[in-house]
Amino acid sequence: MPAPARFRALRAFVVAREEYRRALESKWLFGFAALFALLVLGLSFFGLAQSGEVGFTGFARVTLSLLNLVLFVVPLVGLMLGVTSVTGGAESLSLLLAQPVSRTEVLAGKFVGVSAAVSVAQLLGLGGGGLVVALNAGPDQLGGFAVLCGVSLGLAVLSVASALAIASLWPDRLRATGAALALWLLMVVAYDLAVLGATTTFRGVGLQAILLPALLLNPVDLARVLVTMAVGRGALFGPTAATLVRTLGTVPGIIAVLLAMLVQVAVPLALAQRVFRRRDW
Fold this sequence. Notes:
The protein is mainly alpha-helical. The chain is 81% helix and 0% strand.
């Protein structure tokens, strides 16, 4: 007879708490938080140093300056932590699976624990630095910075889900790390080149018909557009700005964005659960 839902949730919570503790034991996660805090403070305080002025400025410059760093670093950290949580200790995983806990509960616990650890590190770094800036320079453009923080948390969760799928498919640590790095390169570099090539190849097709589906498929590109639009710099996208603002700024556009993000979490988790349950660990 299956255990009641509250017992299954309790067992998954115990696994999540252990994963959270193990992730925080890696000291470099605190370095990750400190790096973001120092960048927020430094970009705000020295942002106008070239013009001979120093002092805390608003969030607009900080948000745009941090955007590319967040898009590069956060997915990489989420992927590496997610892969390590499964492939980092074969003996401890075998011991855990020998306990009276289902494999689905183990996987759910790992997903929640690692996601929580990365999210807490980001909240400490971005949130702590942002609080100091707000107290000294005021809340001007705070909305854009809040969107950056939310997008950063979303990217971390998406990356952890993808990492668990990768680690389930390739339990060997070296292969899983290589596959995670390949996915990271695809999301942050190669995907844009492929979309650029598609727009050049299909010249007769409307730009909207290519860019919008491509945007919804890649969380990094979606995050970049959302933050840029949130700080009022949508014009950076040139002639496509009007289309993006008109589409993503509507209720159906917001629903499409939310659904796309949910799918990008649910699909890798479903794949991970299917493979993780059947694999002989």
